[in-house]
Amino acid sequence: ELFAPKIHTDRIAGLIRNYEFADDSALSYFRNRLKEAPKDVAFGLDWVLRHADTAEKQDAAANALIFKTDVLWAQLDALHAAYVEPGRIPPGAWQPDQGLAARTP
Question: Which part of the chain is the Thiaminase-2/PQQC domain (predicted)?
Fold first, then answer.
């Protein structure tokens, strides 16, 4: 989350450049995260510093973060399996040739 504003700024630019469906509605999540992510970081850090006052609670906080990153990696693994290798796109999922912005030479 600490680096989310920079990541989301880059994502917004890439989505606008490459996908015709990238309108205000489609980008609202990423634009909102530009403001919300820093607040989330501050809240999370403050909460841990105030409440994780034992080794057990600190371990629980660290394990929660590890779980979150494991879930995010699982999502990335699923996207890679669908769209890179082996390239098995699930039924009903986005197809790479749909919604691309027209490219100008």
Answer: 2-77
Measured distance CA(19)–CA(42) in Å, rounded: 33
* Mean pLDDT, rounded, for 39-59: 96
Whole-model pTM over 0.90? no
DSSP 8-state class, residue 99: S
Sequence-ordered list of residues with C-beta below 8 angstroms from that of 59, at least 6 positions apart, any chain: none
Sequence-ordered list of residues with C-beta below 8 angstroms from that of 21, at least 6 positions apart, any chain: 99
> What residues contact 81, with CB distance under 8 A and at least 6 apart?
88
For residues 17 and 99, is the Cβ–Cβ distance under 8 A?
Answer: no
